[in-house]
Design goal:
The complex is a heterodimer of chains A (about 400) and B (about 290). Chain A has about 400 residues and is an alpha/beta fold. Chain A is about 35% helix and about 20% strand. In chain A, the strands form 3 sheets. In chain A, strands 2, 3, 4, 5, 6, 7, 8 and 14 form an 8-stranded mixed sheet that branches. In chain A, strands 11-13-12-15-16-17 form a 6-stranded mixed sheet, with helices on both faces. The chains are: A alpha/beta (about 400), B alpha/beta (about 290).
Chain lengths: ~400, ~290
């Protein structure tokens, strides 16, 4: 019985776990937290059947640590959490960035700050995903908007992590994570899988943090004869701590370069009705579903020429497409379940005067009506206009 | 004359990573020497050995040794090692930590790794102080001792490291000192060989920070303290049988526990077998067509 013959009703979190398994994930470490626990539960059930390992750790710090440890051991590894746990993971996410260990961190966002509103949806961790760990670093973060996309972007997250030797964050929200909808998943065998590059040189020549033309040095798992050192200290091409200026700066530049050179592959988005649009709505995750409905109504009922730019990749921020599309419209509306996070980036690229924010952080989904109000609102005289949402 | 350490020469990254960061007279190098001799004695393949550490003076140990070495974040060495061990159960994973690393910031991971009884060798080099950051109080700083953050004397009781590990469920618990090196080698070998969570507390000292604050500036003074204030498990037992009480602050050396109990990675393998053989649960539609 092949999968493609089955259209089924499925929850986003389950689709995420199945995507991970299809992408080749064979290690999961996690700590219970709503609204992400279903991912751990499904992994606990399925991984042993595939010879993989699931472990419930003592906290989220240990979870991400075990994930990195397993990845060093050669397994594709993942953890899933929500806001409070994501905060705890930040230090070790930075470790994975610095040590260039591939791993996937799923954050099913709920309303914060702190314990917040368990477990109402939010998109308040966008900036934390970018800058949560200390120091200058690149990061990749993806935002799914449907159950099917929970599957697809989880696969993408693993492939990008393995290809670029970097942690990848899947920024889902509670709506997408808990929503059940009709979905048709691809055959697991047909899912594209990228595996990390293994060194092709003898151990004595191996540079785990070297500077190859691709900017991504191959990664040998522990126990394969390549004995080397991994550290969170800034290190030289062999992995040993260094304080030499001529080694630190090139290393940091390479970390950024390996992402920046491949923006075409990493940055994904979807345009809807942008051909003739005079107003652009920028949205992602569950909010993009409201936005889609809003532009449909705006066009059909009010004859407004409105288009949607739905971001699938939040970080690195897809500047090029936002800039290109923003040039062709009079106004840009950014809708998100926070009080302006990705809006800051859009304002930076499109200019503050053009951008209007629609946001709420009260645990409620931004409704199509709220976005519609913004579409129909007269353009602000100057400065960004914030649509106040009653709460 | 053959040098005593001649055989362990090949286990060092001596061309790349020396001189080391430790102060002259530090005990951590003695622990490293003991670790290398044990690996050699047990004839372990270097490729199959991973040494994982956290942050601190002891955390710097792996970089000098030619194994698969992982220098992690502060306190998290055991959690990283747990992931690595699950991914590579065939590898010998040795975790070296300081007292602050293992018991303060990493205290949660310490008790849970012991509870799981996962086959890791945890070596806690206990120097009763945060050395690298300049001599602040640690969870094992003795009551009344002076430190950079206890200028009027420390008012917190110290953690008994071995007792903590035993209570948490470690299957092998031993204590040695950096003065009794031959004994330390023997304990280290047994700790590495043990299948299950093995804790070895190595009582060391920090003459530069702890010593300076407590009028024990010379490593010789500190070594003498280890020599004069410690007793073997057997001797302690005999004293107890004779009804004598151990003087306060006495370090009991030797194996405090050596039990066989189910090991985590072995149990996991059994679970994998069970999960493979079991019929697929039919509760949810999610299952259909999948795996």
């Amino acid at each position: 019985m092949t999968l493609s013959s089955h259209v089924r009703l499925m929850q986003g979190n389950n689709a995420c776990a199945l995507g991970a398994l299809a992408a080749g994930c064979r290690f999961f470490a996690g700590y219970p937290i709503t609204p992400s626990s279903e991912i751990a539960e499904l992994m606990a059930r399925e991984l042993p059947k595939l010879g993989g390992k699931f472990i419930q750790m003592e906290d989220e710090i240990a979870s991400i640590a075990a994930v990195i440890g397993a990845s060093v051991g050669g397994l594709k590894a993942m953890t899933a959490t929500s806001g409070p746990g994501f905060s705890l993971m930040q230090e070790n996410i930075g470790y994975a960035v610095a040590a260039e260990i591939p791993c996937v961190i799923v954050n099913v966002m709920r309303t914060g700050p702190s314990t917040g509103l368990p477990t109402s949806p939010a998109q308040g961790d966008v900036m934390q995903a970018r800058w949560g760990t200390h120091g200058d670093h690149p990061i990749i973060a993806l935002a799914p908007a449907s159950v099917r996309e929970m599957f697809d972007l989880t696969v993408d997250a693993f492939n990008l992590a393995e290809k670029y030797r970097t942690p990848v964050i899947l920024l889902a929200d509670e709506v997408v994570g808990h929503m059940r909808e009709k979905v048709e998943l691809p055959d697991p065998e047909s899912v594209p899988r990228v595996n990390r590059q293994m060194p092709g040189v003898p151990p004595e020549w191996y540079e785990p943090f070297g500077n190859p033309p691709s900017d991504v040095p191959p990664l040998a798992p522990f126990g394969e004869g390549y004995r080397y050192h991994i550290t969170g200290l800034l290190h030289d091409p062999r992995g040993f701590p260094t304080e030499r200026l001529d080694e630190i700066q090139p290393w940091l530049e390479r970390l950024f370069r390996k992402i920046d050179r491949h923006l075409d592959e990493i940055c994904k988005w979807e345009e809807d009705g942008m051909e003739d649009a005079r107003v652009m709505v920028v949205a992602y995750g569950a909010t993009a579903r409201s936005a889609r409905q809003a532009i449909k109504i705006a066009r059909a009922r009010y004859g407004r020429k409105v288009g949607l730019l739905r971001l699938k990749t939040l970080w690195p921020f897809p500047e090029a497409v936002v800039e290109r599309l923003a040039e062709g419209v009079q106004r840009v509306i950014v809708a998100e379940m926070n009080l302006g996070q990705i809006a800051l980036e859009v304002e930076r690229v499109a200019g503050r005067r053009k951008v209007m924010r629609v946001g709420r952080a009260d645990g409620q989904l931004v409704t199509p009506d709220e976005i519609l109000d913004a579409i129909r609102a007269p353009q602000a005289e100057s400065g960004p206009r914030r649509v106040a949402v009653a709460w | 004359m053959q040098r005593y350490d001649h055989g362990t020469y090949e286990y060092l990254r001596h061309h790349k990573k020396f001189p080391h960061v430790w102060c002259a007279g530090c005990g951590i190098g003695i622990v490293m020497g003991s670790l290398l001799r044990s690996v050699q004695k047990l004839e372990l393949n270097q490729d199959d050995v991973a040494v994982v550490s956290g942050i601190g003076c002891t955390g710097r140990m792996p970089v000098y040794m030619d194994f698969n070495t992982l220098h992690t974040t502060h306190g998290r060495a055991l959690a990283f090692a747990t992931g690595l061990k699950l991914a590579r159960p065939e590898m010998e994973v040795i975790v070296v930590m300081g007292d602050g690393d293992a018991l303060a910031i990493g205290g949660n991971h310490f008790i849970h790794a012991a509870r799981r009884n996962i086959n890791l060798t945890a070596i806690v080099v206990n120097n009763s102080i945060y050395g690298m950051t300049g001599g602040q109080s640690s969870p094992t700083t003795p009551l009344g001792a002076m430190s950079a953050t206890a200028p009027y004397g420390h008012i917190e009781p110290p953690f008994p490291v071995c007792e903590l590990a035993m209570a948490a469920g470690a299957s092998f618990v031993a204590r040695g000192t950096v003065y009794h090196v031959t004994e330390l080698d023997r304990l280290m070998e047994q700790a590495i060989r043990k299948r299950g969570f093995a804790l070895l507390e190595v009582v060391s000292y920090c003459h530069t920070t702890f010593g300076r604050a407590n009028n024990l500036q010379s490593p010789i003074q500190m070594m003498r303290l280890l020599k004069d204030n410690s007793i073997t498990v057997q001797a302690a037992k005999k004293q107890a049988e004779q009804g004598q009480e151990l003087p306060a602050g006495q370090i009991v050396r030797g194996i405090l526990r050596d039990e066989d109990r189910p090991e985590y990675t072995e149990l996991y393998d059994q679970m994998i077998e069970k999960a493979h053989g079991a019929p697929l649960p039919r509760k949810r539609a999610v299952r259909r067509g999948w795996f």
